């Protein structure tokens, strides 16, 4: 999301922000949202590094403060700074504090870069033209007929799997799966998501119980991601994925 302000004039801030002196609270607009980085542009170069960032989870009775874990503060020019955090938990409020707010012109918030885009994908079988590469083409359309989802063959393939092999190992914050629409969506439930390092040693092993986002606490670089349907998914298991995003 990109927000443009009138530099330093905080009274013009959109209503998603709450402003107090030297404090800015940004509500993500959804119950749970993951964070990758924030880009800030200021008008006064002397204030480009005068920010403090943390997060709040207000979804429960008591507001929980979450720190920016493994913060990376990168000044790309005298008016622009990127602040990156390795966040493994969803948040619904971003808090900025500091003198830099008086000179703030632009805010851009991102979940991070999708490291799976256009990477090598394979599946154990293919139904029609619903190829494995459709899950990393950048299109999250969930309609199978739209030509951007995978689909295995439920007649010949009794253990359907889909595999992503990254060109280089990467540190991952979280994975996000876009399943196909009903009824194919039901087949992704109780599937297993696994990750492996460059030596093919297992890292993450989770069962999909009606989830679409999977945080990754283990910061060992990931080389391969495997999604496998199980027999509890259906009596004739199959696998259809419209997009897998890997954020790091």
Q: What would you note in describing this structure?
A:
With 248 residues, the protein is an all-beta fold. It folds into 2 domains: 2-110, Jelly Rolls (Sandwich), CATH 2.60.120; 120-247, Galactose-binding domain-like (Jelly Rolls, Sandwich). 0% of the residues lie in helices and 40% in strands. The protein is built from no helices and 18 strands. It has strands spanning 2-4, 17-20, 23-27, 37-42, 52-57, 64-67, 72-77, 80-84, 93-97, 104-110, 120-123, 161-170, 174-179, 192-196, 202-207, 213-215, 222-228, 241-247. The strands form 4 sheets. The protein has a 5-stranded antiparallel β-sheet, with no helix packed on it. Strands 2-3-9-5-6 form a 5-stranded antiparallel β-sheet, with no helix packed on it. Strands 11-12-17-14-15 form a 5-stranded antiparallel β-sheet, with no helix packed on it. It starts with a strand and ends with a strand. The relative contact order is 0.18. Mean pLDDT is 85; it is low at 10-16.
Describe the structure concisely for a colleague.
With 248 residues, the protein is an all-beta fold. The protein has two domains: 2-110, Sandwich (Jelly Rolls), CATH 2.60.120; 120-247, Jelly Rolls (Sandwich). It contains no helices and 18 strands.
